[in-house]
Amino acid sequence: MNTEKQSFNVMAGIRIAAVLLLLAACIKVIQPFLGALIWASIISIATWPYYRWLAKHMGNRDKLAAIAIVLLLMIAIAAPISVMAVKLAHSLPDTQTLETLGHTPIPHAPAWLETIPLIGHKLNAFWLSVQADVPGFIEKLRPTANKAALWILEQGASIGFSLLEIILAILISGLLLINGDKLWDGANLTLRKLGGAPADGLAEVIARTVRGVSNGVVGTALAQTILCVIGLLIAGIPGALALGFLCFVFAVAQLPTLLVWLPAAGWLFYVGDNNYGIFLLLWGFLLVNTVDNVLRPLLISQGAQMPLFVIFMGVMGGLLAWGVIGLFIGPTLLAVALTIYRHWLGESD
Fold this sequence. Notes:
It is a multi-pass membrane protein. Belongs to the autoinducer-2 exporter (AI-2E) (TC 2.A.86) family. Its main location: membrane. It is found in: Cell membrane. The chain crosses the membrane at residues 12-30, 36-53, 65-86, 159-178, 216-235, 241-262, 308-341. The protein has 349 residues and is mainly alpha-helical. The protein folds into two domains: 29-110 and 137-178, no CATH class; 196-349. Helices cover 83% and strands 0% of the residues. The chain has 13 helices and no strands. It has helices spanning 2-30, 34-57, 62-90, 95-102, 120-132, 134-178, 180-195, 202-235, 240-252, 258-270, 274-300, 308-322, 326-348. The longest helix has 45 residues, at 134-178. The protein is elongated and about 90 Å long.
């Protein structure tokens, strides 16, 4: 009897080890595509209602509706990031640029510079020293400029890789949408197998959370970014697309977007372009900020309310873990994890 029991335990251990080994091997295989797969799942869940509506109005042509969704996502997400990557590559400082700067005369320091408390005198002295020897100052900057160029190149490569992940995720999301009904049934069955009766309805709760974060947080950030970039382009601000990306990061992280457009308006006033400076201030306060205050509560009401620190940690952690694509993945994953935890607490009460 003991021999049979020991034999059974050994066989059970072998089965468990085999399953774990298979699972580890599968994770190793899909690891390079893990970010794209996760985001594809998020996209498909977030766009499912729109996909079903579109398919219905296209005569139940599911594949055609999925293709339309994929094309729209490519235009809305992949295309702007592609343009930004190209602009970033063109912004690399070169030797000719430094030589040109070395022969550019520096204007006299503004009168108010020396009146700045504590550091005004030092700033004025530094300005005078640069004005007296511009070529020498440029030579001192050359090593820093080379490092900056290398950093920009690295970021461009990172954005390029993230762009490939984004394109892959959008394409995969189209396949997930086409097979959405089967995948939904499989997800419900899997959750029921893992969690039993308490897991009933959990898939719907998770889906609402994903849509709430995607639409309320990411959707609002995209709307703010589009308006911000339009305002920056109209005002003639250089590097508007790069500033727009920064605006998107701030908006998703729940930081005020005025950190982007307010300094830009200040720069316009500094160079004497008061009309466009006033325009950008009004554009920012009346449009960019208003979208955040009106659109976010309307869209995020579809899912559970998420604490600010959860969204912030998701954005920062996702950005560090997956790069640009992590801006979308990070906050959604943490929101889903928090929702599952809340659901479990509710079922255990």
